[in-house]
Amino acid sequence: MNPNIISKAISKAVEAKSEKTHEGYIMVNIRPGEKVSAMLDVLSHLNGKTPSEIIGQALSGKLAEYAASSPDHGSAILDALEQVMTDHGNPHENSALGILKKEGLVKISNPFIAKVALPKKK
């Protein structure tokens, strides 16, 4: 039997089990190569943050930048912000929503009932 066929079968079985156990979403684990891992270790050491924090902040910044790039994203941003506030309270300051709040692109008028709005244009 071809080893390629066996690996594909195992991969499909693991994926099927993963889909069943995570109720609608799949977890993906990505392992960087040696060079990327070494670079992340250096950046981590220089910044005093874990590699996860460095990557998370970079992704959050880019996501906030993208969300703010068009007024068409306004309702999705507000829906996400209301959901986060309902589930967890105020968004973390380094999250995409926290960055948008810090920059004044969203306004939380009542944090206790998750009432949010886009600031009015002057």
UniProtKB/TrEMBL annotation:
Q: Which domain of life is it from?
A: Bacteria
Protein name, please?
Uncharacterized protein
Q: Which organism is it from?
A: Caballeronia novacaledonica
Question: Species lineage, top-down?
Answer: Bacteria, Pseudomonadati, Pseudomonadota, Betaproteobacteria, Burkholderiales
